[in-house]
Design goal:
Elements: E1 2-6, H1 12-15, E2 20-22, E3 26-29, E4 38-42, E5 48-54, E6 59-65, H2 73-90, E7 99-104, E8 113-118, E9 121-126, H3 129-133, H4 135-146, E10 152-155, E11 172-175, E12 182-185, E13 188-191, H5 207-216, E14 221-225, H6 231-238, E15 243-248, H7 251-264, E16 271-275, H8 278-284, E17 291-294, H9 306-323, E18 328-334, H10 341-355, E19 359-366, E20 384-390
Parallel strand pairs: 1-4, 9-10, 14-15, 14-17, 15-16, 17-18
Antiparallel strand pairs: 1-3, 2-6, 4-5, 5-6, 7-8, 8-9, 10-11, 12-13, 18-20, 19-20
Helix pairs in contact: 2-4, 5-6, 9-10
Length: 391
């Protein structure tokens, strides 16, 4: 295993267990590692401090362990077993729910790896070259930990790995091949688009927030913007909404939304879906909605886009404030990691003031417990949301 040596004083963040080593912290290397290769990291005093995956870029090492141990199948088995135990203890396994996140990158001390469980299928996604290289070893460890409950492992990393790495990666099954794509969340069924869908095929991170929406939906006219596969929509219908309209710019997303609503509420006339640009729909809408959900894709995937992202959140929320009925409730979200809670709240505050509406905060929302945040890695907090009462 090749060695990396840090500049003097650059080990301090590692002593606080932060799992990233930036390129500017590196003094020299014993030999240039290949991208994705495991490396040992030493301080300027030649003291061992960490082992991780090497990657070309500003984040040059993603730390796997602060102990001098082998990174092998047994290592992954231990980490996956801990992750499973956490999910069992927080109560997301079993009952009327077979959908949850098993591994959330740094939050589960496996930086660069995401694993979502949909029934007896795991969808695995690598966000680092190292995790891509280790994918077969991780799949074997995952099968060992999950046992007979796991029948399929689908690897979905074509769009999440660095383009310049030229890995020739392809999506496909590492185990099994069952094409049954129906999973269950809190008693509601939905199709998972593993191959072409966003993320791992469904936005697992909104489960708790969808449940909260169900509580507020009774008797309301609901507009679900950026609906993707309709998760908020069918929760609103179970909550007793008077009508639910789902909007997304993607026709494929609208087709999936319709299919998911039909799974749960066949031939229910309360639901209608529209393939339409969000701002155009809000400008031209005629239905007087009194519950609106704004769950757009990330407006800022890096800090360089932060200014324009905040302008986008302000513009979008202003439009919703202008259109929502008096006494209405707005669920509004940002999943942009580059946007922090205070910045998002300021953008929404600016939108409310500009629209001239009196607004109260009912709830401040975040990612669920199966998307844990490593206390030493606050950057892992990406989802933030507000539930607002609009006079």
């Amino acid at each position: 295993m090749k060695s990396i040596f840090l500049k003097r004083g650059k080990e301090e963040s590692l002593r606080r267990f932060h799992p990233w080593i930036f390129s500017g912290a590196i003094h020299h290397m014993s030999e240039e590692p290949k991208e994705g290769e495991k490396v040992m990291v030493f301080t300027s005093e030649d003291e061992y401090i960490a082992t991780g995956h090497f990657q070309i870029g500003s984040i040059m090492v993603r730390v796997l362990s602060f102990d001098n141990e082998d990174i092998n199948q047994h290592f992954y088995e231990r980490r996956l077993a801990i992750a499973k135990d956490v999910r069992q203890r927080i109560g997301v396994l079993g009952g009327d729910n077979n959908t949850y996140r098993l591994v959330h990158g740094e939050g589960d001390n496996l930086p660069g790896l995401v694993i979502d469980i949909y029934g007896n299928t795991a969808v695995m996604q690598a966000h680092s070259v190292g995790m891509h290289i280790d994918r077969q070893m991780i799949a074997k460890a995952l099968k060992t930990v999950m046992g007979d409950d796991l029948k399929n492992i689908f690897y979905k990393s074509e769009t999440t790995l660095p383009f310049k790495a030229e890995l020739g990666q392809e999506n496909g099954f590492l185990l099994g091949g069952d094409t049954n794509d129906v999973a269950m969340e809190n008693g509601l069924k939905f199709h998972v688009d593993w191959l072409r869908g966003q993320k791992t095929g469904f936005f697992v991170d909104q489960r708790d927030n969808r449940s909260l929406l169900e509580h507020y939906s009774h008797g309301r006219k609901v507009l679900n913007m950026f609906c993707y596969t309709g998760g908020f929509s069918f929760y609103a219908m179970r909550g007793g909404a008077e009508l639910v309209h789902s909007v997304d710019s993607s026709q494929k997303a609208i087709d999936l939304t319709k299919a998911n609503v039909e799974l749960n509420f066949p031939d229910d006339p309360r639901h209608e879906a529209f393939a339409e640009d969000a701002f155009k729909f809000l400008d031209q809408m005629k239905t007087p909605y009194d519950l609106i959900i704004l769950d757009p894709p990330a407006f800022a995937k890096h800090k360089d886009a932060l200014h324009n992202a905040l302008k986008g959140y302000t513009r979008l929320n202003k439009k919703a404030f202008e259109k929502i009925q008096p006494g209405g409730i707005l669920f509004t979200f940002s999943c942009s990691q580059a946007v922090n809670k205070d910045q998002f709240r300021t953008a929404v505050f600016t939108a409310a003031a500009s629209a001239g509406r009196n607004v109260r905060i009912l709830h401040q929302l975040h990612q669920p417990a199966d998307h844990p945040i490593n206390i030493y890695h606050p950057e892992g907090e990406y989802l933030k949301g507000l539930v607002l009462y609009v006079e």
